[in-house]
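tool=predict chain=A
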Amino acid sequence: MALAVPSGGTPPPPEPRLEPSRSTQPIASFPPQTDSFKRRTSSTAPVITVVIVNFCQWRNTARLVSQLRQSMAIRSGVAEIVVIDNHSPSHPVVRKLEQQRGVTIRRFSRNLGFARAVNRGISEPHPRSRMAQDTELSDWVLLLNPDVTVHEGFLDDAVNVVEKHVTADSTAGVVGFRLLNSDGSSQASSGPFPTLVSTLSGLFLPRSRRKCSHRPEPTRRPVGWVTGGCLLVRRDCFRQLNGLDESFFLYYEDVDFCQRATSAGWSVWFDPSLQATHHWPLHVRRVTAPLRLMTRHALLTYCRKHWSLWQAKVMSGVVWTEAALRQGWAALRGDWDASRCYGQLRRLVGDVAAKRDRNVRRRIRYAAAYLDPVAAEQDGRT
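tool=predict ok
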C-alpha cells in the first residue's frame, strides 16, 4: 500500500490501553496486438485484473486509472481495474471513477492494511464488478501502488509480457518490472531474501539498497523477490498460497509471498522490458516514529516466520535496543509523542515474540491512526 509521510507531522494519538498487527516509455515492448492478445479479446474473462489499494490518495489513484484506461486492453475487456479503498475520506473523483467502464471501486469501513485489502478485493469482488459477473476470472493479477505512473499502452505491454512468460516458463508465478524514480533514474525493485547478516549489514548502506538490489541487466532473470508496488501474480499461484499473509499490515508481505511461491515450486522473475515510475518509495521519505513502528513490525513478523528462532531473537533484541535508544533521544529533545510511540515499539517486540496477536493489532492501529490524516500529503503530486 502506498503510504506517504511528510517531513513534519502532527503527534500520534494518545497511547492505547492494552491487555496482558510520469509517465515513461518502456525500455522494450512487444507488439501490442499478438495473436493471443486478439484471441483473448473475445474471451469472457480478462487476462489481467489490476488491483490498486488506495489510502487517502484519490487524486493519484484517479490519475493512474486514467493512464491505464488509455490501453487497448481496457477498451477491449482484456484487462480490468479494481480500486480497493482502505477507509479514505470521500472525494469528488470517486463518483467519476465508479462511472468509468472497466473500473470497479470497493471501499472498506476501516483500514485493513495492504495484505488484507488485496486479499478481500481479489477473493470477494463487488457484486457489480465483472469479476463477480463472469464465470471465469482473470489469469493474472497486477498490483499497483497509487503513487505509480505508467506510459500509454502500459497494460497492452503487460498482456504481452504475460504471454511471453507463460510461453517461456509454465511455472512463472510472479513477475516484477523495472521501476524508475521521479527524476528518471533507476529504482531498485527486487532482491535476494533477507537474512540476519544482510539485514544488519544493510544498516551501513544507503536506504535505497538495504533490501533491494539494482539490476542494470537489459534481460529478464529469476530473482528472490520483487516489490509489491508493481507486482504481476498468476492467479493460480495466488490461490495456492491463499493470497498475501495478513499478519503483515504494511511492508514485507511481498517478500514473504515470493518466498512462499518459490517454496511451492513457482518461479519469480524480474523483467525490465516493462517499466513504471514510482514517485514516493519508502527510502525517499522521512521515517517518523509511527511509520518506523510499522516497518519494524513487518521485519519482526518476517524473521519470526522465515528465520531460525535464535536469529529471530537476535533481531528482536536489535529492534528493542533501537527503540529504547530512540525513545531516550526523543525524550531528551522533549518530543514526548515520539517517545511514547517508541515505547509502543518496545512493547510490540515482546508482543510479536509471545504471539499476543490482539495486542499487536492494537499497537498497529495506534500507529495507523496517526498515518491516516498525513498520508494524503503526497496526493496529487505524482
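The first strand starts at residue 48 and ends at 54. Residues 4-11, 15-37 have pLDDT under 50 and may be disordered.
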